[in-house]
Amino acid sequence: MNTKDTTSDAKYVNRYYMTEVDSFEDSIYCHHAIIAENHITEHCHDKDQFLYTEGGVVFIKTDEKSYFLPARHYLWIPAGVKHSIHPSTPEVVMRNLYFPKTNSDTAFYSKMGIYPVNDLLIELIMFTNRWNGNIFPVEEPKYSLATAFKLILPELSLHELPLALPYPSHQKLKDIVTYLEENIEENVSFKKLASLFNISERTLARLFQKELNMSFIQYYTILRMLTALKLLLDEKLSVNEVALKVGYNSLPTFSNTFNKVVGIRPSEYVKQKELLI
Hints:
This protein is an alpha+beta fold.
C-alpha cells in the first residue's frame, strides 16, 4: 500500500484504511462506520474496494478523474488506484468491503466505476453490517458469503453511470472548463465558447476529444447533471429551480436528460432522497 509521505498526512497513519486493510493478503476486510473526517487523504490498497455511503454526498478524486457518488449507488475502486475521499459532511456513513485479487477475476473488477444499487444488493450490504475487520478463508460460512457478494456484483451492475469527469491537462481547456463551472446557470453554446476563448470550433472539438476522450456536449451534459445532483440534495431547492440553475429553461428537457444520465427522474430522486441517504 502506498501513501503520500508528507507531514500533514501524519495524523492519518493510524486510520484503518492506512494500517489494517492490507495487513493480511488473503483476508476480506469489512468496515462500517461514520467517516468522522472532513476528507480521507490520498491513498491506495492492495485490495479492491467496494464503497457504499449513506447520509450525504461523496466525491472521490483520482489522478485522472473526479467521481460523484450519489445516494443508492456504489463505487468500485480497483486495487492500486490512488484516491482521496471528500464527504459533504463527516457524518457520512461508509460501508466498505475490501477484496483480495484472484486469478479468476474478470475485467469488471479492474475498472473503476459507479453503479446503481438495487433492492437485492441493499439487503446484502445491510447483511454485511454484522461483520467488522478481517474475514479469513477458514471462517466459514462468513468467507464464502463475502466472496459471493463480490462474485454477484457483475450480474447486478450492468448499467454504469457516467458520473465522473476527467481532468484536462491543456491550459486553455482548463480555463474553458473553469468557465463552464463558474457559469453553470447559462446555457453556453459551443459557438459562443469558441468565440470567447478565441479558438476555432473545429480545434475546440478536437481538444475536448483528445484531452477528455468525450465531446463537448457529453462533458457539458455530465457537468450539468452532477451539479444538479448536488443541488437536489439541498431541500430548499425545487426541481424547477435546480433546472434553471444548471441552464435548462425547459423542465421536461432537464428531467429527460437527468433520467438518461442518472437513471431516475429528478422528481423521483427528490421523493426517494430521505430513503436513499
